[in-house]
Amino acid sequence: MFPSSHLMHLSSNYIFCKSAAVILLSLLIDIASSNKNNFNSVHHRTKEAETKVNDLYCYACDMFDDDCVNINNTIMRQIDLTKKCSQEERFCSVKRFSYTMSDKNSTSDKKLWTLQRNCTQKCENECIIIGERMKLHACQTCCTTSLCNVGSHAIRIKSLDIIATIFSFLIAILINYS
To answer: Where is the signal peptide (predicted)?
Structure first.
């Protein structure tokens, strides 16, 4: 028959092949189960179902309406100033135009010239100042929650609160591990 060293060599090859087969089989099972999960997670939706419905409402008015300047979310008749934004309009905005007068000795307080509230497709928080002696301040603030464009700006408290909470949490962790 076979010498004992040859049998040991065959035995080790057999164990190696068996181990490789077990590993290969477990990999195939893992691949098959992950593909099964992928097949089960496929969702077929129409284009309309994929489109996120815009439920945003904003105050829409200009300064020529007396109530427009003083919107603060507490007066019930302000419901007349609300507007359902279109599908493309994802921001509420407040645009303020004010001016200051200055001479070589002083600068006047900022005076509101006009104010507009509305829904808008694109919005950036910004302020542009034009002029030297008479300065025109054109400012726009934006927000993304319903009826957030109150006061003389658009409220962004929710996102700031989240950032402040996360920042506080990180500081607490750093202090505890120091």
So the answer is: 1-34
134: which strand partners? Answer: 101
CATH number, position 68: 2.10.60.10
* Structure confidence by residue, pLDDT tens digits, 63-76: 766 678 877 756 54
Higher per-residue confidence, 60 vs 44: 60
Q: Where are the beta strands (DSSP E) in the chain?
A: 57-59, 61-62, 82-84, 91-101, 111-120, 126-130, 134-143
Name the domain count of the chain.
Answer: 1
CA separation, residue 7 to residues 3, 4, 12, 146 (Å): 6, 5, 9, 80
Side chain identity at 32, as an amino acid letter?
A
Strands 61-62 and 111-120, sheet pairing: antiparallel
- DSSP SS3 for 27: helix
With respect to residue 66, please indicate whether it lies within any of the assigned structural domains.
yes
